[in-house]
């Protein structure tokens, strides 16, 4: 509809927006905001079936590659980064160095622990750990823990509170910055 006596509000808004889009910082800002929205939506969709924020993490007692037993309740008192991976997962191999770096950055302020699942034999886990210079604890998981945490995509990383509650999770490759940011939130 055309308004008498001048351009209508809609036409003025379109004209103002067109002029604003001529500025590089406006284009970049809008593009960045759209990207952030899409990224957040995809991340939320990927994590939709995982245990929700505030829920107690499923208890576990798992063996390490050295034969020690690690219990979730023994990790209480510090935040826990719990990374689920599979030896055949290429993305898990790429993320492995980020977990090592996070462990160094976090020092004694957090536990960085991983759980190997969906493996054929223990040697496949050991080979992955050697090939990727894994320097964080590797726990030998099974179908039961994978099911308890509802993990069906690798890698999946949980961020647990010092009381053992799920605070957030990330599915897929996560950068060192992304891991660090989620740990301190």
Quick take:
With 185 residues, the chain is of the alpha/beta class.
Which helices and strands appear, and what pairs or packs with what?
Layout (H helix, E strand, L loop, with lengths): L8 H13 L2 H23 L14 E3 L5 E3 L8 E6 L4 H17 L4 E6 L5 H10 L6 E3 L2 H6 L7 E5 L5 E6 L4 H9 L1
Parallel strand pairs: 3-4, 4-5
Antiparallel strand pairs: 1-2, 3-6, 6-7
What is the 3D shape? elongated
Mean pLDDT equals 89
The main pleated sheet reads as: 5 strands, mixed
- Give the C-alpha Rg: 22 Å
Elements, N to C (H/E) = HHEEEHEHEHEEH
Structural class: alpha/beta
Percentage of residues in strands: 15-25%
Low-confidence stretches: none
Percent helix, as a range, is 40-55%
Compute the separation of the termini in Å: 50 Å
Number of helices: 6
Q: List the strand order in the largest sheet.
A: 5-4-3-6-7
